[in-house]
Specification:
The complex is a heterodimer of chains A (115) and B (111).
Chain A: E1 5-7, E2 10-13, E3 19-24, E4 31-37, E5 44-50, E6 65-69, E7 75-79, E8 88-95, E9 105-106, E10 110-114
Parallel strand pairs in A: 2-10
Antiparallel strand pairs in A: 1-3, 3-7, 4-5, 4-8, 6-7, 8-9, 8-10
Chain B: E1 10-14, E2 19-24, E3 32-38, E4 45-51, E5 56-58, E6 62-67, E7 72-77, E8 86-93, E9 100-101, E10 105-110
The chains are: A mainly beta (115), B mainly beta (111).
Chain lengths: 115, 111
């Protein structure tokens, strides 16, 4: 079956512009995560959607960042008034909880460059 | 593609040798752990997982060991191959909390 897909794969924008990044999770996965990875760094948690529960937004770095998940499927991460420090790879993952655990599968990421 | 792990701890291993990558986790309530492999320019790829009621789990050429007493996780790779070169991350999970990732270790295989 299809894995997690993200679009665009690359995005170059100018400082101050808004950007939208899209994630299509694996069908049937109830949980969806967004992470950010700067060059040479680990994965920084941004936001977590789990079923119909309120999302865990504790990782969003500022109010310029927001995310939605429509119909329990596709998610969009929006960054308003982008800054150069927002340049990173944005990774999306989805998972479904089973008796064995919550194995999360990642998409290829969107590389965002803010000029 | 983009290079990851430029500033991460690096483990250099001779091809054919065994590799051991270590991870200290932070939350004593974590009940599920995953190892991921990330190659340059790609998203993390699932390798193996383990629940907290186990202390060892084996896969194909990989073994994960869990020591809850000292909150330590390790990934052993047998007969390391050039294709194993990547950055390896451990991740921990508890209940409905999001996955929390460790800082990562870069594995470099010397042919």
């Amino acid at each position: 079956g299809a894995g997690v897909s993200q679009s665009p794969s690359n995005k170059v924008t100018e400082k101050g512009k808004d950007v939208e990044l899209r994630c299509d999770p694996i069908s049937g996965h109830t949980a969806l995560y967004w992470y950010r990875q700067s060059l040479g760094q680990g994965l920084e948690f941004l936001i977590y959607f789990q079923g119909n529960s309120a999302p865990d937004k504790s990782g969003l770095p500022s109010d310029r960042f927001s995310a939605e998940r429509t119909g329990g499927s596709v998610s969009t991460l929006t960054i308003q008034r982008t800054q150069q420090e927002d340049s990173a790879v944005y990774l999306c993952a989805s998972s479904v909880r089973t008796s064995g655990g919550s194995r999360a599968f990642f998409g290829p990421g969107t590389r965002l460059t803010v000029l | 593609g983009e290079s990851v792990g430029l500033h991460l701890p690096t483990l250099s291993v001779q091809e054919g040798d065994n590799s051991i990558i270590n991870c200290a986790y932070s939350n004593s309530a974590s009940d599920y752990f995953i190892w991921y492999k990330q190659e340059s320019g790609k998203g993390p790829q699932f390798i193996i997982d383990i629940r907290s009621n186990m202390d060892k789990r084996q896969g194909q050429r990989v073994t994960v060991l869990l020591n809850k007493t000292v909150k330590h996780l390790s990934l052993q790779i047998a007969a390391t191959q050039p294709g194993d070169s990547a950055v390896y991350f451990c991740a921990e999970h508890s209940g409905n909390t999001p996955l929390v990732f460790g800082k990562g270790t870069r594995l470099s295989v010397i042919a």
